[in-house]
Design a protein that fits this description.
The protein is mostly helical and 310 residues long. Helix content is 75%, strand content 3%. The longest helix has 34 residues, at 94-127. Its main location: membrane.
Length: 310
């Protein structure tokens, strides 16, 4: 048996999205476009909601939190992934890999719970409009967000405590970023407990929130059907359907990744699925939830129109 220094891992080699240069170039331009849209869209939403008093409502408070989460998520790994497209088998330090992995886990877990909270907010607004402000008080809204952050932080902390420490010199990650499953596959110590917790945590962070969203939107849909206004029904159905598309993509791809039994190696299909929830969803959220919204457009002209006139 070699000395500890011979098997200690100080950095990881990332295989990347593809080993074909042309494919890497295509991925780079897609990632750059997604990153810019996510950065500008989510950043703009956060600025508008903070700056415009008309958007200081529970719905936009949750949207502001969602955009903040997506903004940090986009900057957690995406800039490095784009740079790595120009290198063959780029490296990442051991501790930078851990930070990237656990920050991403914290943010994705938070978003899983936050989307369910936002669905409840819409349910209260549409199905119980007369009692909406009593139900969604500011104290209650802040408590819900704090609970989401607390639950995701606890989950991430347990992952950290169960983290394997022995890799027997293995340092090649078959992925474009540091991701929990690919990380665990490198360990030569027993990872049974870590993998079991990953499946249990994934189940409770995905299935109950997703089921709650489906049931909630079902009740919202029924309330919309009973609306007398044809224009109101059309607008509500358009909004709900677009929300459900984003929710379906986000939860569906993560379920495929983390709830199903895991193969011994990471496939290219798994990498594409990771792109769906890690890159595509933060790009779509501002487009679907806010930028098509009349209130947000009005806030844009109030904030930036006022500044240009000054």
């Amino acid at each position: 048996m070699g000395s500890p220094n011979e098997t200690r891992v100080t950095e990881f080699i990332l295989i990347g999205l593809s080993e074909h240069p042309r494919a890497q170039a295509v991925f780079f331009f897609f990632l750059l476009m997604a990153y810019l849209i996510s950065l500008l869209g989510n950043g703009l939403i956060v600025i508008l909601i903070i700056a415009d008093s008309h958007l200081h409502t529970p719905m936009y408070f949750f949207l502001c939190v969602l955009s903040s989460v997506d903004l940090i998520l986009s900057n957690n790994a995406l800039p490095e992934i784009q740079v790595n497209c120009f290198f063959y088998r780029p490296t990442i330090s051991f501790y930078r890999c851990l930070v990237q992995m656990y920050v991403g886990l914290l943010l994705v877990s938070t978003e899983c719970v936050l989307l369910a909270i936002m669905a409840y907010d819409r349910f209260a607004a549409i199905c119980q409009p007369l009692h909406y402000m009593q139900i969604m008080s500011w104290r209650f809204c802040i408590s819900l967000v704090a609970a989401a952050l607390g639950l995701s932080s606890l989950t991430t902390l347990i992952y950290i405590l169960l983290q394997p420490t022995d890799f027997c010199g293995r340092n090649v990650i078959n992925h474009f970023a540091c991701e929990v499953q690919s990380f665990l596959k490198l360990a030569c110590s027993d990872t049974h407990t870590s993998e079991l917790f990953m499946h249990v945590a994934s189940f409770f962070l995905l299935i109950p929130p997703f089921s709650f969203i489906v049931v909630t939107y079902g009740r919202i849909g029924w309330a919309v059907i009973l609306m007398r206004s044809k224009e109101g029904r059309k607008k509500a159905f358009s909004t709900c359907s677009s929300h459900l598309v984003v929710v379906g993509v986000f939860y569906g791809t993560i379920m495929i990744m983390y709830v199903k039994p895991q193969p011994k190696s990471t496939s290219d299909q798994d990498k594409i699925i990771s792109l769906m929830y890690g890159v595509l969803t933060p790009m779509l959220n501002p487009l679907i939830y806010s930028l098509r919204n009349r209130d947000v457009k009005g806030a844009f002209w109030r904030v930036f129109g006022r500044k240009t006139s000054e």
